[in-house]
């Protein structure tokens, strides 16, 4: 009732008395949208920002083109191509696997540029490493549902960030993908 009265007063006040301002509830008492409600131990601003984050940290591939600062930061990744050829590349802690693959000429498209909007960077993660990765988000799972050749160990490579414990992780490219290129273009970072 109070909310309806306040809305009516605001409408009438603006039409019949343009200079008149009706009192507003203090910000602390105003209702908040569900996504902005604070959780125990968190701040309202951090919770609101967290609600809008869609995917992992995205550096646009620039970070992956830099060499590691220390030999301790090197993490090796094995990519198995569609034909079965194994390519071992050296990345570093924090590298996005999709951009790392593109840097080394591995044919992973990444049409959405790691914005979590397609499934063209779909890979199969070796069983040994699958459980070591963070669980996929609901959005990633929805996109994986559209990927051809889905398996239990399927992940989007744009959502995998390298860590030291992922040394020698083995990723296999599926035989088919939802390729958005129609002219034979090879993917390159922007």
From TrEMBL:
Belongs to the adrenodoxin/putidaredoxin family. Keywords: 2Fe-2S, Iron, Iron-sulfur, Metal-binding. Residues 75-177 form the 2Fe-2S ferredoxin-type domain. Its cofactor is [2Fe-2S] cluster. This is Ferredoxin-2, mitochondrial. Gene3D superfamilies: 3.10.20.30. GO terms for molecular function: 2 iron, 2 sulfur cluster binding; electron transfer activity; metal ion binding. One of its GO terms (biological process) is P450-containing electron transport chain. It comes from Petromyzon marinus. SUPFAM superfamilies: 2Fe-2S ferredoxin-like. The keyword Metal-binding applies.
């Amino acid at each position: 009732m109070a909310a309806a009265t306040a809305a009516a007063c605001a409408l009438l006040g603006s039409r019949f008395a343009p200079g008149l301002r009706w009192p507003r509830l203090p910000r602390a008492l105003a209702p908040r949208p569900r996504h902005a409600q604070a959780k125990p131990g968190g701040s309202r601003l951090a919770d609101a920002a967290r609600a809008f984050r869609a995917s992992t940290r995205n550096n646009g591939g620039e970070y992956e083109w830099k060499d590691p600062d220390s030999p301790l930061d090197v993490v090796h990744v094995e990519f198995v191509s569609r034909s079965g050829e194994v390519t071992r590349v050296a990345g570093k802690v924090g590298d996005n696997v999709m951009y790392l693959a593109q840097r080394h000429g591995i044919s992973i498209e990444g049409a959405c540029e790691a914005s979590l909007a397609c499934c063209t960077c779909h890979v199969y993660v070796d069983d040994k490493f699958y459980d070591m990765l963070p669980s996929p988000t609901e959005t990633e799972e929805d996109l994986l549902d559209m990927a051809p050749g889905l398996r239990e160990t399927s992940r989007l490579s744009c959502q995998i960030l390298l860590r030291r414990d992922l040394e020698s992780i083995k990723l296999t490219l599926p035989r088919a993908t939802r390729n958005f290129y129609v002219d034979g273009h090879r993917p390159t970072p922007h």
